Structure formats: structure tokens, C-alpha cells
Amino acid sequence: MDVTALITALAAKDDFVGTVSHELRTPLTSILGYLELVLEEPGHEGIEAELQVVHRNATQLLGLVNDLIAVASEHVDLSLQEADLARLLADVVDFTLPQAANRGLELVLEVEPSLTARMDIPRIRQVVSNLLSNAIKYSPDGGRITARAHRTGTDLVCSITDPGVGMSPEDQEQAFTKFFRSARSRETAIPGAGLGLPISKTIVEGHGGSMSLTSAPGAGTTATFVLPAS
Questions:
Q1: Is the pLDDT of residue 94 over 90?
Q2: Is the pTM of this model over 0.90?
């Protein structure tokens, strides 16, 4: 089967997404800059709360635009420094505990100490947050989510295991495809844009690591990423 037309169409879609996202980023960056100037100036105390809401939502939108650019180009700019994956994972888990509790989920942390690696801290935090968010969204019946991190030889291994609905083999094959949404997520209106796993994979691979999924329908999912240790 000749797949040339399909490859061309996919490349055109990536070019379109990348171009539109770049065009959106410039005005959003300007909006945030002027908002910050306004917030720094006195005399806006009466509407400061409203301005903070605008700033927060504009920041979130800029983050989405940056993710669109990253998945379209399959590249992220990284600022690497020595950091402890165990501490980072613990911080994100602690931040996520209320969200999990609101869904009737127990969130458990199992880490070895001092898991140092050269990493872009905000980006790896984004990866962990994405995986925990997915685990919560796809575990509607409660249960336990376990976040683990340990050293294996020259690698650091981090995994998030949930008790959720799981994935079919077909869904697993497509899980890292940009904008992919499983039939289950569409049927149950689970929110998402199909970008969390693709951007996470791009970030991890940018660190010289890898990402994988293990899942079965009705048996939950384990999402794992591996980073080179320092």
C-alpha cells in the first residue's frame, strides 16, 4: 500500500499546527507581559483578583501553545541541571494529593533516596504531573495509585500505576500519537486534548530516556519513564 499521501498529510498537519501555534505565542506573550506590568503598578487593588485569574488562564493557554509547538516539531528546549528525581516526585505527589482524594483515590509514594540526574526540572515535573493526571482521570471507581522511582544500573526508573479502566492493545499502539483520544475517553467525556503522553514522551526522549505503557482493559495502567542517572 502506498502511504506517501498519508505521510504528506501528516506532515502538512504538523506544519499547520506548528505555524498556528507560533502565531498564537507572540500575542499571548505580549498579553502576559502587559498583565504583569499592570499587576506591578499600584491602584488596581479592586480588580487584582480578576487580573490574577486572567493571568493564570493566559499562562495556561501559553503552556498549551508551547506544547503544541513541541509535539509538532518533536523537540523541546531543555535547561539541564543536577536534580533529585525522588524529591521532585515527592513534591508532585504531595501537590496532587487533594485532587486524588477528591476522586476517592489513595495516592502512595514509593521511592529510593537520592536519585540524581541531569534534568530540566519544570519539564520533568510536567511529565510526572501529566502521568498522575491521567491516572486520576482514568480511575473513576477509586482505589490506589502508586508513584514509584528507583535506580536500575545506570538508569532512573519512574512509574505511575493506576487501578483504572485500562487500555486495549490497539489503544496502547496509538497512545503516544498526537491528539489521540481513546473510544472510552470520548464516550465518557473524559477531558483532554490528546497531548499529555506525546509531549511527555518528547520531553523524556530529549533527556536521552524512554517512555512506555503497560495496560489491559479493566486492569489499570502503568506508565513508566526512564532517565540516565548522573
A1: yes
A2: no
